[in-house]
Write a structure and sequence with these properties.
5-stranded parallel sheet, Helicase, Ruva Protein, domain 3, 12% strand, alpha/beta, single chain, binds magnesium ion, binds adenosine-5'-triphosphate, Rossmann fold
Amino acid sequence: MKRIEKIKILILDDEKQFTEELSGFFNDSEYESFEANTAAEGLKILSSKTIDLLILDVRLPGVNGLDILKDVKLQYPAMEVIIISAHGDMDTVIKAMRLGAFDYLRKPFRFIDIQIAIERTQKYLHMQRKLKQMEERNSLISKTLEQKIDRQFIGVSPAILEVFELAVTAANYPDANVLITGESGTGKENIARIIHYSSSRKDHIFCAVNSSAITDSLLESEFFGHKKGSFTGAINDKMGFFEVCNQGTLFLDEIADMPFNLQAKILRATEEKVITRVGDTNDIQTDFRIVSATNHDIYKRIHDNKFRLDLLHRLNTLHIHIPALRERPEDIRPLLDHFVEKYSSRFNKPNLHVTKEVYDVLYKYEFPGNVRELKNMAERAIILCKGNSLGLADFRVKSDTTKEVHASDEIVDLKKQEIKMVRKALQKCGYNQKEAADILGITRDALIRKMKKYSIVVSKGED
Ligand SMILES: Nc1ncnc2c1ncn2[C@@H]1O[C@H](COP(=O)(O)OP(=O)(O)OP(=O)(O)O)[C@@H](O)[C@H]1O
Ligand SMILES: [Mg+2]
């Protein structure tokens, strides 16, 4: 068990013998204690030390102990007070408790009584501290999140400014569904979060769901929830995403991969804003907005009868397309500067200078993995660099994996090239899928899909 922090105790009582005795008892224990025999002495100690617990005799000569209690509770609200009262002084005890004393002890008392009272106070103090830490952390999280959202959308190109404008419009219409399209790594999820946190739904949940990462048999219950006992494994009633997102935003990532049989149910839920849990008959109202994203050509999926046109129409009330980074090269420099600043402060390498050569080469680079690739490149370069300048050698522009495709004038077999690139990347990092995905500038999910598509098998134990 974690040790509870040592607490500081001040004993304020006019009887010197009593304070000495008690203090002697405390000094052998895990507490740190201080003594005072007059109110003035006590107040002096309170102002110079952070006292956690005051043991206060309310019958001090010349002053009203209850007045002291009132004052110290006001001045040191985080400090707890145990009062000591004389026999038959119940009235004072009641008044003291009303003024915020935590506990009382009646004289004469045994050490064990005070020990128990202190332990109780200590537990309470410990909880209070934890609560305060949590509050501080939460406000810190929301603050950093807000700052992140304000600052993380980087770009100067007219195309990206248009994206941003559309995102602002989407934020102002919190009931309109939004479809975001764009290649992998262009910032679709980023924009989805910006929309949510700038909208009136921001105080409710943003729930990101990638349906291609959920097993088919569980999909319906994940989205709609289930009633206890409705199938083996349903040991409790459970809310689905639609319910969890009540008043918030449901972000459906990789929407094009949504299994066909689920699409009709999603359509109904989206239209009616009413759902039924699996195994249940009650209708549940829920108010959510759907922001969905895909990097596939969704019209091709419709043509191939893999995606419902009516669902697409329901989802793309507003459509935001994020162009590939290579189509807006003027964003490369500000993005790179942003990532360099971010990682140089994270890795404690300040004053890094990016050489002109780097900007020149990256400006012409294709970025198949878009902004994510640029971000990973910057992170790696900063980790590896020595000295104050970031040169071309620090940036592993993936000539080995992409040049073959881009530099060749011949007509290449794209599928073969892709298989080759995926294999190469996997081999290069010992079949670690996360690392291979980073090298390719795609997500791990996208890599797994490609591996499935091309039946690239990793032998057991290699991932
Ligand atoms: N304009 C931008 N400004 C700052 N960071 C960005 C920008 N666009 C993308 N990023 C960063 O690039 C990374 C990839 O973005 P994101 O995950 O949103 O891409 P995505 O389009 O959802 O990719 P995928 O299709 O692979 O899921 C994230 O770390 C994101 O913060
Ligand atoms: Mg994404």
